[in-house]
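Aim 2, interim progress. The first record below pairs a target sequence with its structure tokens.
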Amino acid sequence: MIRKYFLILFLLVINYLNLSGQDNLKNPVSFAIKPQYGIILPHSSKVEHLTHTNPYGLEIDYSWFLLKDKNWQQCNCYSKAGISFLYVNYDNPEIVGSSYNLTGFAEPFFIRLNRFLFSARMGFGVSYLDKIYDSEDNPENTFFSTHLSFIVHIDINAYYQLSSKYSLMSYAKYNHISNGGVEQPNYGMNFPMFGLGLIYYPSGKVIFPDREKQEFVSKYFFNIYTFGMIKKIKENEYFPEETTYVFGLYGLAGRTISKVNGFSVGVEYINDGGAKEEILRKGLSDDHQKVSGLIGHHLLLGKFDFSQYWGTYIYAPYKPYNFYQRYSLSYKFTRHILGGVTMKVYGDVADSFHILLGLSF
């Protein structure tokens, strides 16, 4: 699963680097250094005892601006994409330790003035955690149980141009780290971070070309996604540890209502091997398969689709809750082929993190 994830991330980066459009305009690059400070949210009573510290860290990113006509036509906006390395110390060295995070991101600009820019950033990547749960050596760390996990973040950013080659930025980030339900405990961590950063432009101030906005035409869209993951069920006094598999698919029918917004309805099916093992251990006869209905909103930024769904179970004899949320970030590699990641959440608790592959019609 990790290999598939890196392949998707690599293809995203390569695709962006090769976005040449139909003009000879070069896409300038920038470098940023971003110290930050934050808080940990107590989203569950199981982690509340670990949330009374203030994480701090340092982020370094490399990005390239997408200024070509082809990029502009995708959302009537300019954007940039890039890769980022983030180190976070959770101010609890004995139990929670630190994380080392590598992400890829996309960042559209919503306000562009002479010296001021305002943007939102969405990214996902992998996280290495140096302190994890251990039933004997570190039983208090209910955040993380695997060294390698996933990180998803959403940021808002404000930039002020200091000179031709430097900008000052302020930003707020909402981060979530989870192993995607591969191993328990998996309560994950939600931690907002805030800070000021310095941006360097090697080729000088970025000039955004004046382009005419494209007329919006509402369209229907139909997407089918498949996803899967490995899930480990821990050993107990009666059963050994088991590695199980979860796979599923969901289909959507939707319509765009603006260049960057759309709504959809859909159906989801999951074959949950982890639930099957739990049912077996409890001596129950419930079915481990689940079918649910989805209602979703799509934030469409060029070839990116950041989707948020409300799901309710139609058929699920063995389930923890009646409702859930699903957050997905996908990228359209070609006219019909999609790829990305998705996270299923019950309230504030992450249930599972999946790799997505899909078709669009």
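The second target in this work package is listed in the same format:
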Amino acid sequence: MLFVGTVRDRHDGRAVAGIRYDAYRPMAERVLAAIASDLEDEHGGLSCAIVHRIGELGVGDASIAIACASARREAAFAASRRALERVKREAPIWKLERYRDGDATWRQEEPLTGGR
């Protein structure tokens, strides 16, 4: 299972120009590795890897990739979704969303449910 998250062109009805991700890289890398390791421990036989980009990204650019491999696709799908939820909640990665009108806002964690 490979999930690739991309920068959306709209959020809450506003046109998005791009996003800047900032992070304390050593800590963020440790957190991503710990999340992957935890998921592997939870789902026997699962292999998981997570990478997140830092810096300026434009609309449509890939921001995160989560790869989960398992003999059972259900485990890989579940682990991928759980990984994304945990990254949003736990990783020290901050998102500055820039809008086409020139405004920008620091975004907080948002749940995966609901369509934006």
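The mean pLDDT is 93. This observation will shape the mutagenesis plan for the next reporting period.
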